[in-house]
Amino acid sequence: MKKILVLHGPNLNLLGKREPEIYGSMTLADINELLYQRGRQDEVLIDAVQSNHEGVLVDTIQSAAEQGYQFIIFNAAAFTHYSIALRDAIAGVTVPVIEVHLSNIHKREEFRHHSVIAPVVMGQICGFGADSYLAALEIVLRKLK
User: Fold this and answer.
1) Is 8 annotated as a binding residue?
2) 75 labelled as ligand-binding?
3) Which residues are catalytic?
4) CA atoms of 103 and 141, how far apart (whole Å)
5) Which residue in 59, 119, 51 sits closest to 89, CA to CA?
6) Residues pairing with 126 in the sheet
7) Any idea what DSSP says for residue 127?
8) Which residues bind substrate (predicted)?
């Protein structure tokens, strides 16, 4: 069975409560359920992991291949802008990664405009709310066929 890992970074556990004018009203559980449902349509297993801890995310990325994942969809959240550890973890694995963001990071505060992980991921999708995740999943599903 094909497997996709969806990683959610810090503070995404607060979705639905935290700044809904920016991030929307959907919870992380709502987004995960949309992804699970879409994966089931193509008989693809999707596992979602959320952590506020950089090391947990690094460990999860590093073990993705041995866990049998073919792709990672990753919203690194605030770590996007400064985590060289996550950048290096992505660069050090063979599993392709698509970077996603709920908001358009390029239209926000200046410090959010730069992604340190962008140079080592397959691509970046941002600004479409939960649809950013779904768009990434559609790309992954096409790549897996």
Assistant:
1) no
2) yes
3) 23, 101
4) 23
5) 59
6) 101
7) S
8) 75, 81, 88, 102-103, 112
Instruction: Enter the pTM of the model.
Output: 0.94
- CATH number for the domain spanning 44: value is 3.40.50.9100
Contact predicate 5/45, CB 8 Å: no
CB-based burial, 80-117: b 16+ in 10 Å, e otherwise: bbebeebbebbeebebbbbbbbbbebeeeeeebeebbb
88 in a labelled binding site: yes
Range of the domain at 84: 2-144
Q: Is 40 annotated among the ligand-binding residues? A: no
Total Cβ atoms within 10 A of residue 71 = 25
Tell me the pLDDT tens digit for each residue of 65-101: 999 999 999 999 999 999 999 999 999 999 999 999 9
- DSSP lists the bridge partners of residue 123 as 98
pLDDT tens-digit map of 111-126: 778 899 999 999 999 9
Residue that the structure tokens 């409560």 belong to? 17
Number of continuous H segments (helices) and E segments (strands) in the chain: 5, 5
